[in-house]
Structures are given as C-alpha cells and as structure tokens.
From TrEMBL:
Family annotation (NCBIfam families): PGDH
Keywords: Amino-acid biosynthesis, NAD, Oxidoreductase, Serine biosynthesis
Record organism: Geobacillus kaustophilus (strain HTA426)
InterPro entries, A to Z: ACT-like_dom_sf (IPR045865), ACT_dom (IPR002912), ASB_dom_sf (IPR029009), D-2-hydroxyacid_DH (IPR050857), D-isomer_2_OHA_DH_cat_dom (IPR006139), D-isomer_DH_CS (IPR029753), D-isomer_DH_CS1 (IPR029752), D-isomer_DH_NAD-bd (IPR006140)
GO molecular function, one term: phosphoglycerate dehydrogenase activity
Similarity comment: family membership: Belongs to the D-isomer specific 2-hydroxyacid dehydrogenase family.
Record-given protein name: D-3-phosphoglycerate dehydrogenase
GO biological process, any: L-serine biosynthetic process
Enzyme Commission designation: 1.1.1.95
Catalysed conversion reaction: (R)-2-hydroxyglutarate + NAD(+) = 2-oxoglutarate + NADH + H(+); (2R)-3-phosphoglycerate + NAD(+) = 3-phosphooxypyruvate + NADH + H(+)
Record bears the keyword NAD: yes
Every ACT domain range: 438-510
Primary role: Catalyzes the reversible oxidation of 3-phospho-D-glycerate to 3-phosphonooxypyruvate, the first step of the phosphorylated L-serine biosynthesis pathway. Also catalyzes the reversible oxidation of 2-hydroxyglutarate to 2-oxoglutarate.
Transmembrane segments: none
Length: 510
C-alpha cells in the first residue's frame, strides 16, 4: 500500500463494503483480498469504478465477466505470494506424511506415544503435480531437493517449458496411477472443479496422500469421504475449502485430514509483495501507463506498450471518426495493418479502435476492456488483416466499415515527432490531423468552393484553423476537411449545405 499512501492523487478508504454503502458510488478503484465478494450487485452500486485490484492470485471472488461488461479493469498480483504458497504446500506435505499436527496435539494433551506417529519419508517418493504454473513449479524445485521424483500433468504446459524446468509431462491418468503424493495447483475453473472426484480418486495408488493448497473444490470434498473411510487415501492436507470457513464439515472429523484456514499466502513477505504489486499497478493505471497483470486486458510489458502507444491513439481516432461518419447501423469492421505497425501487438490497437468506434454509439462506458463484448452484443463483428501495402508511409492502419448499403474506408499513419495523420478518407487521398472540431464537406470539384465555404463560416464567426482538400479526379468528387476553433451548430451546417455543388456536410469530433 505504501505507493498509494505516498500518492497525493489517491484518497484511501479502508472499510468493508458493507460499512461503505453510502460512499460506494464515489470510488474509482477497489482493492480486495479473497474475502470480499465482488459481485454484479456490488458493481451496480459502484458506477464510478474503473479498476479492481486483487491483492493475490485467484480472482474467483470477483465476477470478472460483470466487471468486463462494465469496462472495469481487473488486475491481480500474480507472483507476490508464489513462494509462500509453495512453502506452505511443502510444509503441509511434510506435516502430512510425518503426522506432525496429530503428534503435536497428542504431546499437548500430555501423552508420549511415539509408536502411534510413525510416518513416511519424502525421499524417493513420486510426487504428482497437477497444474504446473508458478506455484506448481516452485513446489517441484523443493521436491527435487528432497530427493523426490516429480510427475507433472498440465495440459497447457509446452514441452519446451517442461524441459527448461526439468520435468516430464504426463497424462492425468499416468500421474494419478504412479504418484505417492498428489498436490493440485490449478485455478478453479469449469474443468478443474471436481478434477479429483470419485472416478479419478479410484485411479490413484492405494495409500496415496493428497494436498490442496490451491482452491477448494478441485478435490471433491464429498467424494473424498469414502476413500478416507476405506483407507485408500492415507491422508489429506487442505488449506482451502469449497465453503470458507468450512463450518462443521465431515472431513474435519478424520484424524488423517490436516487443515489450515487458507494460510498459503499468509506470510509477512507475501502480503507485502502482493500489496505493493497491486498498488503499483493501480498507480500505473491512473497515470495512463500499461498494467501488466490485468485479467481482462491483453498483458503488455512496458517495452511493448511504449512501441504501440502511438498506434493505440491513432486506432482510437480512426474508430471515432469512422463511427461518426457512418452514423448508420454497421455489421463489420475490418482493420488492416501495414508496415512497422504490423509487427507489433495489434490486438491492443484493434481493441482501442473498436472502443473509439463504439463510444459515440453506446451510452455506457466502453473501453479496451469491454469493447469486444459490446461489439458482440450489438452484432458487430471485427477482424484484423496484415498487408504489405503501406501507400508509401512507414506504417498504415486502414479501417473499413461495412454498413447497410454503404462501405467506408479511412486510413491513417503515425509520423514520429509529428503526430497522427489521416491519409485516405472515403476513397480520397488527403492529409489531416485527427484532432479537435472537424468539418467534412463533400462537393463537386469546382473553382471557388473554398471561398464560398470560408464566407459562410466567417459570417458565423467560425475561425478555420486548417483546411485540407482532396479529390478523386479533376471535376469529380472532392472533399474538404476543416479544423475549426469551435464546434459549429446546425444553423452553420444548413447554411453550408445550401451552397451549390456541396453534397454533404458533417461535423466530426476527434
Ligand atoms: N492457498 C493460498 O493461499 C493460495 C492459493 N493460490 C492458488 O493456487 C493456484 C495456483 O496458482 P499459480 O501457480 O499462481 O497459478 P498459475 O496460473 O501460475 O498456474 C496454474 C496452472 O494450472 C494449469 N491448469 C489450468 N487448467 C488446468 C487443468 N484443467 N488441468 C491441469 N492444469 C491446469 C495452468 O496451465 C497453469 O500452468 C490458484 O488456484 C491460486 O488461486 C495462490 C496463492 C495462494
Ligand atoms: O491472501 C489471500 O487473499 C489468499 C491468497 C490466495 O488464495 C490467492 O492469492 O489466490
């Protein structure tokens, strides 16, 4: 939290959400650990919210879809508590096989019963790790130091990464059948909920030990009971539960089930790490810098962000202008990247363009977070293409909008140390900066048109900052793009539209 406390821009209110009912509508950011449930209902009471920070890894206490729909960025602190969670898993493993908690209770009860607590060595045992991300791989390092062999199941782990980490990948069935001890380190998802249920537990070795320091529900708690009763499962270590706190859970009655109250990340070091990580990210967000640990935005390193920043801005302007020009229902946006921009992380630029396009059409917040979702809701599809056609520019982004009976194309380029330029507008080569109050005039290419437009604007006290003209061919379709010092009202538009040979006049705000 220190980075937040040091910031003059941030006011911190530390309360439970239930104690802040009256102020909920005022907050821009919400920071939580795992206990606060960030539901759709809570988000409805927080219309100002822009970002939710989870000081930890799992975001299962946050309705990420509901946040995304509202354009709220969700960030977490993905690695601040990795070591603590891995060490806790290892402590649980040692405690489980050596029956330390049971022995501890016995001695505290004034007993001295050494023969009752004969355990097993970890050395030489096969450890099955399900989920080989940050924590799983740290657990593996410690296991190897203890002389264990490590058997990994993770369907998303590449062979290269497995080799780099010195483990071999196995199928889930292989891990289940060979492991003496199985520890789970996946997120809780539709696929992992109940992963160790009746069917898979039946495949495990008789006498297997199980550990869950990830999320309650990955091991099916009800399904475990008969396996503990029969002695098939020799012992279980749980830091997490399907319901927390678990209350009077039947598993707690088993002597060989050892438990902690979700303590994996509860170390001084981990709490400091996650709080600092999430606070720094939050400050970056409000300073308009990239956030690297967002759940609902593509991850961007500082390096990548710096490269795409200019195009991100250009994309937004292309979308914004196109949307106003095509103020009719549209079905499809097609974005083409050419030149240097084509080698960058274009997903983010496309999202920015899409957000720019949707903004004039949507009453609610629309930004890079929810742009794809809002487009889908409105039946607008979009796609990216890459081309070699740069039209002589170092980089070029083209947007083609397909609407009912009309297609519109706009192209732009970014010139370093100069700015964004629109270089092609509705079939006409032109060159203007997409900034401020713009006026689009489409007319027949005739002498004297510039003067007539100037006279009307002058008569209405509208000052022209810049004027760019272009045409398809001499005497054919021509256009002017004017940049004005102030927006023009409908009366000015009508006066311009009455000039002979002017076909269309549109205000465009950029
Ligand atoms: N007990 C505690 O206090 C703490 C618990 N956690 C929890 O630990 C878990 C792991 O965290 P990290 O290692 O940081 O996450 P991570 O995202 O780095 O790793 C998760 C791994 O699970 C794999 N995975 C996803 N679906 C899978 C499936 N169906 N089968 C097998 N593998 C699958 C992914 O490919 C990934 O490699 C999370 O559930 C997290 O919430 C994290 C920190 C503290
Ligand atoms: O400290 C916490 O909030 C729990 C940590 C945890 O479970 C996580 O980071 O996923």
């Amino acid at each position: 939290m220190a980075p937040l406390c040091a910031s003059a821009q941030i006011d911190i209110v530390q309360k439970k959400t239930t104690e802040a009912e009256e102020e909920l509508h005022t907050f821009d950011a919400l920071l939580v650990r795992s206990a606060t449930k960030v539901t759709e209902e809570l988000l409805e009471k927080m219309p100002n919210l822009k970002i939710i920070g989870r000081a930890g890894v799992g975001v299962d206490n946050i309705d990420v879809d509901a946040a995304t729909k509202r354009g709220i960025v969700v960030i977490n602190a993905p690695n601040g508590n990795t070591i603590s969670a891995a060490e806790h898993t290892f402590a649980m493993m040692a405690a489980l096989v050596r029956r330390i908690p049971q022995a501890h209770i016995s001695v505290k009860s004034r007993e001295w019963n050494r023969s009752a607590f004969v355990g097993n060595e970890l050395f030489g045992k096969k450890l099955g790790i399900i989920g080989f991300g940050r924590i799983g791989s740290e657990v593996a390092k410690r296991a190897r130091a203890f002389g264990m062999s490590v058997h990994v199941y993770d369907p998303f782990l590449t062979k290269e990464r497995a080799e780099k980490l010195g483990v071999s990948i196995h199928s889930l069935d292989e891990v289940l059948t060979v492991a003496d001890i199985i520890t789970v380190h996946t997120p809780l998802t539709k696929e992992t909920r109940g992963l160790l249920g009746t069917e898979n537990l039946a495949k495990t070795k008789k006498g297997v030990y199980l550990i869950n320091c990830a999320r309650g529900g990955i091991i099916d708690e009800q399904a475990l009971i008969p396996f503990l009763e029969s002695g098939h499962v020799a012992g279980v270590a749980l830091d997490v539960f399907e319901q927390e706190p678990p209350g009077d859970h039947p598993l707690l009655a088993f002597d060989n089930v050892i438990v902690t109250p979700h303590l994996g990340a509860s170390t001084v070091e981990a709490q400091l790490n996650v709080a600092t990580q999430v606070a720094e990210e939050l400050l970056h967000f409000f300073e308009g810098r990239p956030v690297t640990s967002s759940i609902n935005l593509p991850a961007l390193s500082k390096d990548v962000y710096e490269k795409i920043q200019a195009f991100y801005h250009l994309g937004q302007k292309l979308g914004l202008i196109a949307s106003q020009f095509m103020n009719i229902p549209v079905q499809e946006l097609s974005v083409t990247y050419a030149g240097t921009v084509a080698d960058l992380e274009t997903t983010y630029i496309t999202r920015s363009l899409l957000a720019g396009f949707l903004r004039p059409r949507v009453a609610s917040t629309v930004n890079e977070v929810n742009a794809a979702m809002v487009a889908k809701e409105r039946g607008i599809t979009y796609g990216e293409k890459f081309s070699d056609e740069t039209h002589g520019y170092a980089n070029c982004i083209s947007l083609t909008v397909h609407g009912e009976n009309k297609t519109f194309t706009i192209k732009g380029t970014h010139v370093p140390n100069y700015g964004d330029r629109i270089v092609h507008f509705d079939g006409v080569a032109i060159d203007f900066a997409p900034e401020g109050h713009l006026l689009y005039i489409q007319h027949q290419d005739r002498p004297g048109m510039i003067g007539k437009v100037g006279n009307v604007l002058g008569a209405h006290d509208v000052n022209i900052a810049t004027m760019q003209v272009g045409r398809q061919e001499a005497g054919g379709k021509a256009m002017m793009i004017l940049s004005l010092d102030k927006p023009v009202d409908d009366e000015v538009l009508q006066a311009l539209a009455q000039i002979d040979d002017i076909e269309t006049v549109k205000r465009l705000e950029a």
